[in-house]
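Exercise 3.2. Students should predict the tertiary structure of the chain below and write it as structure tokens, then compare their answer with the key that follows.

Predict this chain's 3D structure.
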Amino acid sequence: MITPDDFRRLALALPQAVEGAHMGTVDFRCGKIFATLGNPDGAWAMVKLTPDQQEMRVAAEPEIFTPVPGGWGRGGATRLRLAACDEATARGALLDAWRNVAPKKLLGANV
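Answer key:
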């Protein structure tokens, strides 16, 4: 189990990641948003995966990952249930999400 503070710490450990706010939730971005906390409530986070990454994670660990409803989910936005997730799984999902939006110059960073 990870907490919102654990998720925040993992997200902010990524190169040039900063915390902001978006539509009433906490977001993490490096230019573009790659993750959020608190949607639909405090039990969840969201990672911005590709549809292929989402399909793989949901199939492998449906107790942790579920697509966000609607168009955002079809585009790869994926909810992560904090109470069901361990730190290694959250770190991997965050790293995928960060890589999906990070500027090309950051992708060579050792993360």
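Discussion points: The chain has four helices and six strands. The radius of gyration is 13 Å.
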